[in-house]
Specification:
Structural class: alpha/beta
Number of helices: 8
Shape: globular
Low-confidence stretches: none
CATH architecture: 3-Layer(aba) Sandwich
Strand order of the largest sheet: 3-2-4-1-5-6
Length: about 210
């Protein structure tokens, strides 16, 4: 039985391009982001993948990325579930600020702690640990059972919500996940064992 899970961070957004903290705000994809999403779909097609169900967040950039990938796959009518549990980390008071301006306001060291620590949230926002606390139960209740039943599942979401899932799937420590970067529009392919641990992991970046 194939138990296939593919995680894809959305293509470049308008706020990624402007170096802004985005969080739960809802900018669209740039032209580059659209191209990245189409390229992701093409890579999945070349791998011969077809999906039984897709999951995404309630944010436009993830949904648009998913739509573009499914169009490349010829699966535009695929059942898709949207849930805010898969939303990006909420950056609180940093949301909408240029990252360089934030460093000037709070200092480089403090902003680095907010961005790269596991459990220290920015003011009014979420840490990666907080993001995990909402994304992982959703994964365990909805996504993982689909995969373990033999379905091929595609998830289009965000850097931090996906990193929290990767931490759980791969059994990474907080220190290990903080070093893990997810490129926009690059699929991460998993074949899972019956016990939910990965049998194969592949980064589809070419």
């Amino acid at each position: 039985m194939d138990r296939i899970l593919v995680l894809v961070r959305h293509g470049q957004s308008e706020w990624n391009l402007k170096n802004l903290f985005t969080g739960w705000k809802d900018p669209g994809l740039t032209e580059k982001g659209i191209a990245e999403a189409k390229a992701a779909g093409e890579r999945l097609k070349r791998k011969g993948l077809k999906f039984d169900i897709a999951y995404t967040s309630v944010l436009t950039r993830a949904q648009h990325t998913l739509d573009l990938m499914l169009a490349e796959l010829g699966q535009t009518g695929l059942k898709t579930v949207k849930d805010q549990a898969l939303n990006e980390r909420d950056y609180g008071d940093l949301t909408g600020l240029n990252k360089d301006d934030a460093r000037k306001k709070w200092g480089e060291e403090q902003v680095l702690v907010w961005r790269r620590s596991y459990d220290v949230p920015p003011p009014g926002g979420e840490s990666l640990k907080d993001t995990l606390a909402r994304a992982l139960p959703y994964y365990m209740t909805h996504i993982q059972p689909d995969v373990l039943s033999g379905k091929s599942v595609l998830v289009a979401a965000h850097g931090n919500s996906l990193r929290s899932l990767i931490m759980a799937i791969e059994g990474l420590t907080p220190a290990e996940i903080l070093k893990r970067e997810l490129e926009t529009g690059v699929p991460v392919f998993y074949r899972l064992k019956a016990d939910s641990r990965p049998e194969k992991i592949e980064i589809l970046n070419g």
